[in-house]
Structures are given as C-alpha cells and as structure tokens.
C-alpha cells in the first residue's frame, strides 16, 4: 500500500508514481477510526489492506497491480454507540459509495445487519452489535477503467418546448419484445437494439426517462413473499449502472454497455433522462441492514431523528439522505456530474425532490442542494425535472421550484382525469391545464415547459386500467391492499375490469383516445408511459413496484390487435402534429391579448354556442370547452427575432355523456374549419369525406370526444 491521493474519491485505475499501474482507493469516512480496503479473488478469498493515510477525513492509498475487474469493498472501524447515532462495525463489508460497477446481490440474512437482528428483545436489538462477517452475503465494487472521451457522440440537445418524454423501464420495455434477440431482452443492449429504437422513433418521442438504473437492492419483506423490487427505487450505488440489466456481465462490462446504449439512442435523436433516487437509500430505517453509508458514517449521511437511534423519514422508506451535509451533497453532485460527463446522459428526474430541498426541517427553495445545482456549470445545463413533493409536513411543492427546474405537474393529471370522468363542475381549471398551467408557473421567467404534463406514470394505473377499474387490485403484491393510492380518479365505464360488452369496450377505447389527445395537444411537456400507446394493462394493479413479470412488462403482442395498433398510430400522429406546429408547443405563456393591432388574441375560449366565454360562464356548470390557438399571434419569436407564424387551431373537448351541437366561431377567428381529429372514430381520424365546415356551422360533437380543427381565415395566406 502506497500513500496514494485523497482525490478523486472511489477506486480509480491509473499509473502510479514509478510508472506502474494500479488503483487508488479514497474513501471519505468522517469520525471513523480505521479503514481497510478488502480485495476479493475470484474464489472469494479476501485480502485486507489498511488505509493509513488520512487527509481531510479522506482515507486513501494506492495499490500497485490492482487492475480493472478487481472486486473490492471496505471495512470501517469506530465507536458503536447507537444512542448517539454511531454505528461503526468492521465486521460488515461495505460497498464503496463511489463504486463505478457492482458485482453480486445482497442476501438479507442476519449477518448483513450491523446490529443483532435476531436478538430476543426486539425493542433493543438495534443497540446490540453483530460481529458476524457479512462479506459472503453482499456484493462488491468493481474497479473500472472508465476512460472514454465521447468524441463520436452527438447529444440531441432537444429544446424543452420540443420535448416529448417517454417513461420506460429498461427491463420491462425490452423483456417481451419479439424483435430483440432473447439474450438481450431486459438489458441496456436490448434498449439499444434497432427494434427497440424503431418503436421510439416511429412514435416520435424525443427523450426516454429511464426508471432507476442506479444499483439497487431488493427489500427483505419482498424476498419473504417471493417478490423483487422491480421499479428500483431502492438505490445503494449512485455511480454504478444496475448490473442485472447488463447482457455483457457484471465485472465492469455493464459500464460500457450502458454507454453504448446512450450512444445508440443519441444517434437516433433521443435524449436519455435518468430517474434518480437521492432522497433515501436501501439501508432503510432503524432496523435496516448495514450495506454502505450507515457503516461509513451514519451520523453524517442520514438525517437522524430526535432519538438518534432512529431516522427522520420524509420519504416513507425509512431514512432520508442528509444533503445539507457538505460531504453528502458532494456525493450527490459528483454522481450527477459523472452520469453527464462520463456516461453521456442528458438530464435527471429527481424522485421526491422536496426531500432534497429541505434545509434543517422545512422545504427551502434556497437550500444547499438547489443552490449548488443552480451554480454548477455542468448540471445547470441539463434537463432537471422535480417530483415536487415528499411525504413530510409541507412537502407538497408543485409550482414552487425555482427557475431552471421543470416539474411533474400532478394538477394536470388530476384535472384531466376528473374532467373525462365527469367529476368537474366547470372548466376553469381545465383551461389552465390545457394552456400551460400559467397559474402555477408564470413567475420568475419560467416558461410553459416548466410543466411536465402527464395523465399516467409508472406509479398508478396504466391508461387502459384508468378507464377499466374504479378500484385498485393489488392482491399480487401481498400487502392486503394497503399499498397503492386509493385516490385513483378513475372511471371504469360502468363495468369493473375486463368485459365482453362491445359498447363498454368501445367507450373505454374512446376515453383512452380522449386522454391521450388531451395530453399531447396541451401546452407544456407531455410525458407518455411505455405501453400506454398500445393499451398495456396491469390488471388493475396501481402499484406494480414488485411485479417483475408479465404484469409489469410491456406486452408487445397488443400491436397485433387492430384496435391497439390504431391507438399507437394515433399517438404517433398527434406527436407529429405537435412537432410540425409551434402553436401547439408554445415556448411562452399565452396572454389572451393580440400581439399586433390587427391580430387576434393568442388564445381564446369558446362555449358550445360559438361565442367567447364570459366571466360568468367560466364559473357555470359545463362539460364542453373550445380552445382557439392563433397561429399568427404566437407568444414567442424565432431565433433571429422574427415572428413565428403557424396555422390556427380550434380544440374542442366534450366530456358529457350526451352529444352536443358546437357552433364554429365566425370571423375574425375563421371563415371555415378543417376537421383533423375526431376521437369518436376508432382511429381518431376525421372522416375522409368530411369537407371544411363554414364558420357558424353547428357541428355535432359526439358524447365524450375530442375534435381538433384547423381554422382557415378567408383572404389569409396559409401558414408554412
């Protein structure tokens, strides 16, 4: 063991001072009394070497001859005093927080717990140290040669206003795809396969948002029920791509495979956004295992409770990472920069971001985490999406995150669901959601793309289940229905679950088309969930986090059914329409005013009578709304300052169970209207024989349907 260097943290392969290659090990362990690096041979034989150099609380050393592929871990010694939060235990092999790759799985036997889990007095078990060796039951870090300059990669750099996000699970999206070779299904290489990318490009999405791909662990309570953590919101390695998604191996090969996946998606014009979980770790609460951070410095890495034996839990997962601590904040930001600069990703969606924005206790938009992100020259340039809530007091922060951030807008989700199930009394809130949620985001120079609009996400019903079930059906999760939300805002169209009734089935498909059309024609950034565009179902399970099986995987055979194939085609057509028309993806908020004296208002609202809504009518009971978007009055300019000119559109949404006669507005709004979309049709297409309807015509809008018209203004040249 040579002295080595305290920087950078982690295990880094490099050339030593005499020209010999080896690996530098550096671990921040504030308060620890000793650190040993433990090297493991292929047969499991362990060699321990103490790190004797200590610089600014970083224990470090250089070991000549340690090459990429070497498996390793740490043992950290110190006081055992759970009453003050000190839980050092050198009998437990710890995963390096900076490990670039991880080999093996956690086996949650009693030996991996720092305390005597099987102590007869359960109330004090966490205070009794367990001295059994955990090494045979825990994964090891892997030394990786991660030299890669990315010169052949071209990031798409899609502007926010042009972005369409597709949320997918690496394993679930590829596991049943018939066009992907069996040995690649469920892996990063499978997602990079041309068959997978062809679906994404054919649909027209611009970014994939990957459910967690940081190394994660499976919870003990799931293992006891014969289940696994499928979604991956249980991180333990913030630098390591989850090894189980690698087709090429777990000895460091997963790093290169992930990079090749990113390159393949970039080459297809698709950005890669990671769903990241920095709010908690897989070590859980007071009775959880000692896997990494707890054994390195429990008191620094986690927010402890009033009784330091326990933890402040703003996440519902047992612990909360203490990102107000400088070294914890460094771990998070180092991880983020690594995924951008060395792994090539284009942005992040932060799970329970409000927990990261807490200062001492309360959510604080001037918190250290948000301040560091705002000034970081790498991170402030990538896409940043907040899930703007946590489970603690004051944790709901939709609309409150500062400029630079976008947010999952659950107000959009709830309003659109309520409108189409007939649970709204008026259309006021719907108007805000269709036009970019200016009530939430029009401050601080934010733009409509601050709102990530969604109707469904991985958490909750699929789009098909949303119109097929009133209640959750989570029996397979083994939690007696306690898991998953009871507030689904769903409507089963009169029958719970599967049905052979053709009228109910037709209504359900129409409702799916309505929800999909509303999402993709609204201002903001739309997010689709993998499989929703082809009628994927989870059988009414609204919390499939532990369903690593056909329930959670995308069923590609649905595309063999004409009805679901038509839904996929409709989604692609709507995305193409959005891409072709800047008025449908405005980069600025609407003012309701004309941009020129002779112009129209940039947005106008109409009732079924063809007149603009009065203030009183906004408050009146209604299930019909017309939104007119003026293509000659778009509220933003082109790159050279020129006006952006487009077609004008009239969107009609009608949620009542009875049809309605809607009068098309007259001049100056339009002299005639061309029907482009009608969700009353199984394909969503306008009837081919439908001519342009003159202004003032009362057109029949079917019950529970969406229509989109292109407005033609007599004497005006068509927009290009």
TrEMBL record:
InterPro entries registered for this protein in UniProt: GH, GH13_cat_dom, GlgX_Isoamylase_N_E_set, Glyco_hydro_13_N, Glyco_hydro_b, Glycogen_debranch_GlgX, Ig-like_fold, Ig_E-set
Residues covered by the Glycosyl hydrolase family 13 catalytic domain: 167-578
EC number: 3.2.1.-
Keywords: Glycosidase, Hydrolase
Alphabetized Pfam families for the sequence: CBM_48
Coiled-coil region list: none
Gene Ontology terms, MF aspect: amylo-alpha-1,6-glucosidase activity
GO BP term (any one): glycogen catabolic process
Recorded family membership: Belongs to the glycosyl hydrolase 13 family.
UniProt-recorded name of the protein: Glycogen operon protein GlgX homolog
Organism: Actinacidiphila cocklensis
């Amino acid at each position: 063991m040579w002295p080595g260097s305290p920087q950078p943290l982690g295990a880094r392969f490099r050339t030593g001072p005499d020209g010999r290659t080896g690996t530098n090990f550096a671990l921040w362990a504030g308060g620890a009394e000793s650190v040993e690096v433990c090297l493991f041979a292929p047969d499991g034989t362990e060699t321990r070497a103490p790190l004797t150099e200590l610089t600014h609380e970083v224990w470090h050393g250089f070991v000549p001859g340690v090459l990429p592929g070497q498996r390793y871990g740490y043992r950290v010694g110190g006081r055992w005093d759970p009453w003050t939060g000190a839980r050092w235990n050198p009998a437990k092999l710890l995963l390096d927080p900076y490990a670039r790759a991880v080999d093996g799985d956690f086996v949650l036997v009693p030996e991996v717990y720092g305390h005597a889990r099987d102590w007869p007095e359960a109330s004090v078990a966490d205070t009794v140290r367990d001295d059994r060796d955990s090494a045979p039951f825990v994964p090891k870090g892997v030394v990786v040669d991660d030299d890669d300059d990315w010169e052949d990669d071209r990031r798409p750099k899609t502007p926010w206003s042009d972005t369409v996000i597709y949320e997918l699970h690496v394993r679930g999206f590829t596991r049943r795809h018939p066009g992907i070779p069996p040995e690649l299904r469920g892996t990063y290489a499978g997602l990079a396969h041309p068959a997978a990318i062809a679906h994404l490009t054919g649909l027209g999405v611009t970014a994939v948002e990957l459910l967690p791909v940081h190394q994660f662990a499976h919870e003990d309570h799931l293992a006891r029920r014969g289940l696994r953590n499928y979604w991956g919101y249980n991180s333990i390695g913030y630098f390591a791509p989850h090894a189980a998604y690698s087709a090429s191996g777990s000895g460091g090969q997963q790093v290169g495979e992930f990079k090749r996946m990113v390159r393949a998606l970039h080459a297809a014009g698709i950005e890669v956004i990671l769903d990241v979980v920095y709010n908690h770790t897989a070590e859980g609460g007071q009775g959880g295992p000692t896997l990494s951070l707890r054994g390195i410095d429990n008191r620094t890495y986690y927010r402890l409770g009033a009784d330091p034996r326990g933890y402040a839990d703003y996440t519902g997962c047992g612990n909360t990472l203490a990102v107000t601590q400088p070294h914890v904040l460094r771990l998070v930001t180092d991880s983020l920069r690594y995924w951008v600069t060395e792994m090539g990703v284009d942005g992040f969606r932060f799970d329970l971001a409000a927990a990261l924005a807490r200062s001492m206790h309360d959510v604080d938009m001037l918190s250290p985490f948000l301040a560091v992100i705002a000034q970081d020259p790498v991170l402030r340039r990538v896409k940043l999406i907040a899930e703007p809530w946590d489970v603690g007091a004051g944790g709901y922060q939709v609309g409150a995150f500062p400029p630079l951030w976008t947010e999952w807008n659950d107000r959009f989700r709830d309003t659109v669901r309520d409108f189409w199930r007939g649970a709204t009394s008026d259309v006021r809130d719907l108007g805000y959601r269709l036009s970019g949620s200016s009530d939430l985001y029009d401050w601080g120079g934010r733009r409509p793309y601050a709102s990530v609009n969604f109707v469904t996400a991985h958490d909750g019903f699929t789009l098909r289940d949303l119109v097929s079930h009133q209640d959750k059906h989570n029996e397979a999760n083994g939690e007696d229905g306690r898991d998953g939300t009871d507030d689904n805002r769903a409507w089963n169209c009169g029958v719970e679950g599967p049905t052979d009734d053709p009228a109910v089935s037709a209504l359900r498909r129409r409702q799916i088309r309505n929800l999909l059309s509303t999402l993709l024609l609204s201002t903001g950034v739309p997010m689709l969930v993998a499989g929703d565009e082809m009628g994927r179902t989870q059988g009414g399970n609204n919390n499939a986090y532990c369903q690593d099986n056909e329930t959670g995987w995308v069923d590609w055979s649905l595309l063999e059914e004409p009805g679901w194939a038509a839904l996929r085609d409709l989604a692609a057509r709507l995305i193409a329409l959005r891409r072709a028309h800047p008025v449908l993806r405005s980069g600025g908020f609407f003012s309701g005013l004309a941009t020129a004296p002779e112009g129209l208002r940039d947005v106008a609202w109409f009732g079924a009578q063809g007149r603009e809504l009065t203030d009183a009518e906004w408050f009146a009971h209604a299930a019909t709304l017309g939104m007119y978007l003026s293509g000659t009055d778009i509220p933003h300019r082109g790159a050279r300052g020129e006006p952006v000119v487009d077609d004008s559109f009239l969107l009609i949404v009608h949620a009542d169970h009875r049809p309605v006669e809607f009068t098309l507005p007259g001049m100056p709004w339009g002299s005639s209207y061309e029907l482009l979309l009608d969700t009353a049709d199984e394909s969503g297409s306008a009837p081919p024989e439908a001519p342009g309807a003159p202004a003032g015509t009362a057109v029949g809008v079917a019950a529970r349907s969406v229509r989109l018209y292109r407005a033609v203004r007599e004497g005006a040249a068509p927009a290009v």
